[in-house]
Automatic annotation (TrEMBL):
Name of the protein in its database record: Developmentally regulated RNA-binding protein
Annotated PANTHER family: HETEROGENEOUS NUCLEAR RIBONUCLEOPROTEIN 87F-RELATED
RRM domain residues: 20-98, 116-179, 352-424
Organism: Culex quinquefasciatus (Southern house mosquito)
InterPro entries referenced in this protein's UniProt entry, alphabetically: Nucleotide-bd_a/b_plait_sf (IPR012677), RBD_domain_sf (IPR035979), RRM_dom (IPR000504), SLIRP/GR-RBP-like (IPR052462)
GO function terms (MF aspect): RNA binding
Amino acid sequence: MDQGNNGGGRKEISEEPPMSRLFVICGRNITRDQLVRHFEDDGEIEECVVIVDKKTGQGKGVAYVKFTQTSAAARGLRKNGSYIENETRPIKVMISASYQKKKEDGSPEEVNEFKFRRLFAVLPISKTEDDIRDEFSQFGNVTQIRLVPDKKNQSQCAAYITFSSFLEAALAIEGCDFSYRAKFCLPRENLKQNQQQQQQQHYQGNQYQNQGNDGGRYGNGGGNNGNNEYSRKRTHSPENNRSGGDVKLVVICSSGLNQDRLWRLFDIAPGMKYCNIVTQNDINTTASVVYACRDEAQRALDKIHGLEYPIGERIIVRYENEFRDEMQNCDILAPLGPPKPILGLQNAQCAKKAFFICMPEAISVKLLQDAFCRFGDLINVYLIPGKRHGYAAFASEVAADRAIQQLHGIQLGDCRLKVLECMEQNESKRKRPMDQS
């Protein structure tokens, strides 16, 4: 086993076999030997590199562990959240490399172990589904088999074999007959969805450009702004999470992270265009990261938001529009008092509901919760799916009445709230004594 070096991390690490390298976020004082001992029971380690500062030799809190087999890396993934000897904080473990290029746009396909549970193999036409299931069940639980005849070669067929886990699929690829040429494959519907998304985004972009200034009042954008204005206005709308065009994330992190380290961290998710530090002081760093589309930005947010990097310092990742709106809302909502805990459905019984309408478009539930929780005794806030109205449930009538009185007509970002008493609940209360009599 080559344990690599403790250099600045510039050394290229092999990507073969695919998905055999782990990216580990850990403590700054963790050594290569500690990592090797922690992961060596998962399989043969080809290389282990702890990234350190060239000048000080201090660890940067990240490392790479490269295995000789994909299945070993799959086992290593299960140690996400585990503790290395003598450390008090858990480590974060991810596959570090992209698997392959997407055919439609040439960008890397994100490695997500939940996707990679299916393999493709070329088998003799004489193999039945039962034969295949018996042969491949030695590697794990086979959940689905689909056979497709080869029109060019009638003696063979294409087999798509799905397992319960990424590890089982990796074991099957490594352990099955070499002549099968087995490899990972993605669901075909992913490619179709991407193509349909692109067509829909192209149509919407042309549509909103042609509507001119008349569409501005609904957040659809004027003729000069086109699809960018459409994306800006409808960021929080529940039905528009896949808008086209570049998407910017705002990142708040440790002041010890420079632009190069942020670039490497956010480049884990495919589609990143660039990463820039906006402000930096002794306390924290604020940066912007731009992705080619919202789906790619969402993957980065899901992976990195909340990570402790360095250990003990969490990274906050938000969409730029949401971040801007929240900053504005902090000033607007400050006179109403600080946020108070949300009780939740299991901890309290609803005493009164407030009915609200977002005009012109719905905003995120998180922003709504931030507003309604200021009055205390909030149980839950929910939007009607696909609509711009919803309900806020309170455990006390006093809190509900205060919310109705003080939030009605308030402006939150681009949205104005209309807040009223829930008439359905009031009518049911009036009918209850009559029904009992």
